[in-house]
Write a structure and sequence with these properties.
The chain contains seven helices and seven strands; from the N terminus they run E-H-E-E-H-E-E-E-H-H-H-H-H-E. It has 205 residues and is of the alpha+beta class. A hairpin with a 3-residue loop joins strand 4 and strand 5.
């Protein structure tokens, strides 16, 4: 499954764009419903991945930023940045790269993510997702092991629990390089509009 890195920011796109263009070396920005936008940086550039950019962007805009990195369908990392510093970190599989022996998620605190809700919060779904215990049977591991089959589904449930609509959640799983490879698809996802190009990124049409 494809890797992606995105940031969810509780600021309307048009308000965020001047800061995003100043801070992000290359990437795209998309609207994410009333009062929110998404940033999709080119993570292969130095100091331009979501975890490097979240602090400077949040500090400049004066809002918290939720940075998400999903790796190969296996692992979801979420970081909440406030006032330019990391305030919270979540990792669905801390032992994946042999960094430690843990298979239990760390940072599974639902309260850390409430600033990113766009409506009523489904507390049960949010807590279950962060604990890697899917509410929906189709998301459970087919081998009978506990946890999600795919980390994308875990990410989906976190954002769904925070009342984000399906279109926004789909956008939150588009990487910069996905957009470069399938420009017509992302324009279709945006109802005919282009993502906003940031830094050295070229327009998609």
């Amino acid at each position: 499954m494809s890797t992606y890195g995105t940031m969810l920011i509780p600021v309307p796109l048009e308000q965020a764009v001047p800061v995003l263009r100043e801070v992000c070396a290359a990437g795209y920005a998309t609207p994410a419903g009333p009062g929110f936008c998404l940033v999709h940086p080119d993570r292969f550039l130095d100091e331009n991945d979501v975890f490097a950019l979240a602090g400077p962007i949040g500090a400049a805009l004066g809002v918290p930023v939720l940075a998400a990195f999903q790796y190969d369908g296996d692992r979801l990392e979420l970081e909440v940045w406030r006032d330019g510093v990391r305030a919270h970190r979540y990792d669905s599989w801390p032992g994946r790269d042999g960094e430690d022996d843990g298979d239990t998620p760390v940072g599974a605190d639902p309260a850390a993510f409430l600033d990113f809700a766009t409506g009523p919060v489904d507390g049960h779904r949010l807590a279950s997702a962060l604990a890697d215990t899917p509410v929906d049977a189709e998301d459970r591991d087919v081998d009978g092991e506990p946890g999600y089959v795919w980390a994308q589904s875990l990410h989906w449930d976190v954002l769904r629990a925070l009342s984000h609509p399906d279109q926004v959640i789909r956008l939150a799983q588009w990487d910069y390089h996905h957009m470069r490879r399938a420009p017509q698809a992302i324009v279709g996802e945006l109802g005919g509009s282009e993502p906003v190009a940031l830094g050295a990124a070229e327009r998609l049409s």
